[in-house]
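<instruction>
Derive structure tokens from the sequence

<record> Sequence and structure tokens follow
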Amino acid sequence: MAADEHALILDAIAKWAAAEVRPRAMQHDHEDSYPHDLVEQMKELGLFGATIDAEHGGLGLPASVYSGIVEEIARHWMAPTGIFNSHLIAASCLQRTGTEEQKRRWLGRMASGELRGGIALTEPDAGTDLAGIRTHARRDGDEYVVNGGKTWITNSLHGNCLGLLVKTDPDAAPPRAGMSLLFVETRDAAGAPKPGLRIRKLEKLGYRAIDTCELAFEDFRVPAENLIGAEEGRGFYQTVGGLELGRINVAARGSGMARGALDLAVRYAQERKTFGKPIAQHQAIQLKLGEMAARVEAARLLVRSAAAAFDAGERCDMEAGIAKYFASEAAVFCAEEAMRIFGGYSYSKEYDIERYYRDALLMCIGEGTNEMQRIIIARQLIERNPA
């Protein structure tokens, strides 16, 4: 696609998000109800194939455009971006490291949204430390038998497929050498969970309406041909290779939320009056708005920088880490400052700003905690600048 086509896509998404996402956000969030109607619209827009290559039925968008799409949606409601982000991380693993037959078998169905899922990595005792996972898969003839548990898995209740990280050699040293990635279709033809899989939805402070679940696998059988890449022991590397795009996505979410919170604060500050004038004319409020605007612009530029490095095929774990860290913290800062500008009304669920505050905090935790991002940044800084 040419640059002008990319611009048209971003413009269309911005208009769609304002017209369709924003009016639905409050109700779905308060009810914690899955936005089935928006998902169907996202299918029609091609968002489930946003970064999947055109040869497999996707849009084949570069990260620079994809991150812009995420930002425009998160500006109004962050949660829906998680539905296609988790899905596209799994698709990225498959597209980069799957066999040609596996790509033909699954990527087209993923691009259309027929297959919709996520990436199942986190466990109760293993999040950032992926090497510590315990879920294991034992080869039994033409199948793998999976036992273990995963948690905080997006798209696992209303979706129907997962990229599942397991240990196929629990005794391997180092542990990551014994990890493999399975492509799992989690539901039968009737839509029920397949035998050996139990799913429990988790209740959350924010990021509501999206199906984040705990999974229990008990002698769950997966065809051996579903081993992504057809070779055991590659799962850790297949997985971490997709996390840079995931972190750019989270950074774009943070940037979008920061911008959305600023939008709300600017509008409210011009409408609300105290001491005979709009509070936007009070210096204390102007100081807040000025700081928020600076952080929003910095976050957007960092996201663009990381996306450009990704699109150029460069190593960008440091750039993605910087963008994710700064933009997520900007989202929290702007949401909190907007809460202060709204005053008592910010505590009312009749206003959108309280949702931004609840949702923003997740971005400092998801796709690697911000504490870990700073460690990644520092290690890369030292590696790229040897004494």
